[in-house]
Write a structure and sequence with these properties.
Transcription Regulator spoIIAA, 565 residues, elongated, 5% strand, 66% helix, 2 domains, mainly alpha, five-stranded mixed beta sheet, two-stranded antiparallel sheet, single chain
Length: 565
């Protein structure tokens, strides 16, 4: 309970802070009410299961997570993934996959992988979140327009084709109510500063439908039979080994997406409140929430950026706000759940339209397309297309791999291996005084990491040097690290020089690089005397080597001439 202990040590349990956190918890609970039901329906679950998920996830994440202000629950990011799992494996399969994902998340946190997940590049994150936004948007056409589409496949192009074919079945009353809800959601935040627009839209549209009784308008009651006025009981989902095997992939998808979303939300919370989250503990907290949620009728949950931001804006300073949020939703289920039966589904679809727009970040997406390097734009568009038309896991994996390849290429191009000419250098760090370089000696410097992407560059650059030169001085002061391929390249270069009776002298080598070369046996192969701390000592070593070679050459010539005599 790191977040609770930090809040206590920071003095956030005073009466003033308690009042602020109770108020923030109630407000964020009001915001979560329509969202939780909308996300549940879009994921293929019942609306009350969204409320159960929000209650359990927010409570356990607040108690066991790594940030004081995170609000967890069902989110729009999960819709594209969960709806496919539900359609393929049923609700029981979704709950098993969620439980497995929770175990994976706890494993991520225990293995201290929180910081690693934060390094997923921005084009990949923007690409798959925009793709998810498109999937949510298209997936809500049915309820927004009151369509009666035929059964469709699981792929995006199959769904959109069926929805387009069903457009002639549009229900004008449903569409009118949905457009009114959408208008309230767009204009409401500008006019109603303290009242959540989704709640206003849900109340207004429900009242309008209750008064006028428009025909053909689907409600929670007509579609799901209403919301029970009881809390769920503990129940273990029935599990079969074959089902577990088939759900490993979906479970990893939930865990990966949940970890990314929760840590992004934690970063946003840190920026807004000036706090510092513990990424590994946050993953453990999210894992516990996802293990317990399906045992009480819920499904996958993660950190919700919008609800976390609302929590902070309304004065939350400690995990108490998340606990109050869960308590508020419990009271709603026990006292007000019969009223939810009259909520039109088109209103929830309008809410999801706004969620899809916010997730897509269209202005930011277009700004990246216009202003980013071509390779980053390619990664962005490929990730987006794969998310929409193939699969989220494929999109993230391919996007990360492409981004890594682009990064390695840029790193390789940034590595410079250049010769030094006496008096030609302008930088004091690389300057060589005239007359300091002995005849037959060449001086090269390596600037940048000597890794597998730059190893061939080293080999190509120095391949022709060993023939005219008798000694190579290699300055390595600007090499921050070296990997196994770089070590092999250095060792092969030394071997080639020795074959041509030439000498290699390394200088200015950093300690971390030197230790790796020593451990790999490169220094033994080179000779410890050929490793110098400064370029001046390296040039002195080159002069000494040349003098020895000249002496041996003269002795060899004398012995040859005497033998001829």
């Amino acid at each position: 309970m790191i977040a609770l202990l930090e809040a206590k040590s920071a003095g956030l349990w005073s009466r003033h802070h308690i009042a602020n956190n109770v108020l923030a918890g109630i407000v964020v609970g009001i915001v979560a009410l329509p969202l939780a039901m909308a996300f549940a329906i879009a994921s293929g679950a019942r609306p009350e299961q969204g409320l159960y998920t929000a209650i359990v996830a927010a409570l356990l994440t607040s108690l066991f997570g790594g940030t004081r202000l995170q609000i967890a629950g069902p989110t729009g990011a999960f819709i594209a993934v969960l709806s496919v799992i539900t359609a393929t494996h049923g609700m029981a399969g979704l709950q098993i996959a969620t439980l497995m994902a929770g175990i994976i998340l706890v494993g991520f946190g225990a293995a201290r992988l929180g910081a690693v997940i934060e390094y997923i590049p921005s084009p990949v994150i923007v690409g798959f979140t925009a793709g998810i936004g498109v999937i949510i948007f298209v997936g809500q056409w049915k309820d927004f327009f009151g369509l009666s589409p035929a059964p469709s496949g699981l792929h995006f192009h199959e769904k959109i084709l069926v929805l387009v074919q069903a457009l002639p079945t549009i229900n004008l009353a449903t569409t009118g109510l949905a457009l009114l809800a959408l208008a309230i959601l767009i204009v409401g935040p500008r006019l109603l500063k303290r009242i959540p627009a989704p709640l206003v839209a849900m109340v207004v549209i429900t009242v309008v439908q209750s008064v006028f009784h428009f025909g053909g308008v689907a409600t929670i009651g007509s579609a799901f039979g209403g919301i029970p006025r009881t809390l769920p009981s503990f129940a273990l989902p029935s599990v079969h080994f074959a089902q577990i095997i088939s759900l490993v992939g979906p479970a990893f998808t939930i865990a990966l997406l949940g970890s990314i979303e929760s840590l992004l939300s934690a970063v946003v919370a840190d920026g807004m409140a000036g706090t510092k989250h513990n990424s590994n503990q946050e993953l453990i907290g999210q894992g516990i929430a996802n293990i317990v949620a399906p045992l009480f009728g819920g499904f996958a949950a993660t950190g919700a950026i919008a609800r976390t931001a609302t929590n902070i804006r309304n004065g939350a300073t400690s995990p108490l706000a998340g606990v109050v949020h869960s308590g508020f939703l419990i009271l709603v289920i026990l006292l007000l759940s019969p009223l939810a039966s009259s909520v039109p589904l088109c209103c929830l679809s309008a809410i999801l339209f706004v969620v899809a727009w916010n997730m897509s970040e269209v202005p930011h997406f277009m700004r990246l397309v216009r202003g980013s390097p071509g390779t980053d734009v390619a990664v962005l568009l490929i990730t987006f297309a794969l998310t929409v038309f193939v699969d989220l896991v494929v999109a993230v994996n391919v996007g990360v791999i492409l981004a890594a390849l682009v990064f390695m290429r840029r790193m390789a191009l940034s590595v410079n291996i250049e010769p030094h000419v006496e008096g030609a250098d302008t930088a004091p760090r690389t300057a060589l005084p005239p007359g300091s370089v002995p005849s037959g000696t060449v001086v090269y410097s390596i600037e940048g990491p000597l890794f597998f992407g730059a190893a061939q560059k080293l080999e190509r650059t120095l391949a022709h040097v060993q023939r005219p030169a008798t000694t190579l001085v290699l300055r390595m002061g600007q090499v921050p690290f070296v990997d196994a391929t770089g070590i092999s390249a250095i060792e092969e270069m030394i071997t080639d020089f020795l074959k041509h009776d030439a000498t290699v002298v390394l200088c200015e080598v950093r300690q971390n690089v030197l230790r790796k070369l020593e451990r790999a046996g490169v220094i033994d192969h080179l000779g410890a005397e050929n490793v110098c701390e400064t370029v001046a000592l390296a040039l002195a070593r080159a002069k000494a080597v040349d003098l020895v070679k000249e002496t041996w050459t003269r002795l060899g010539k004398r012995s040859t001439s005497k033998s001829h005599e």
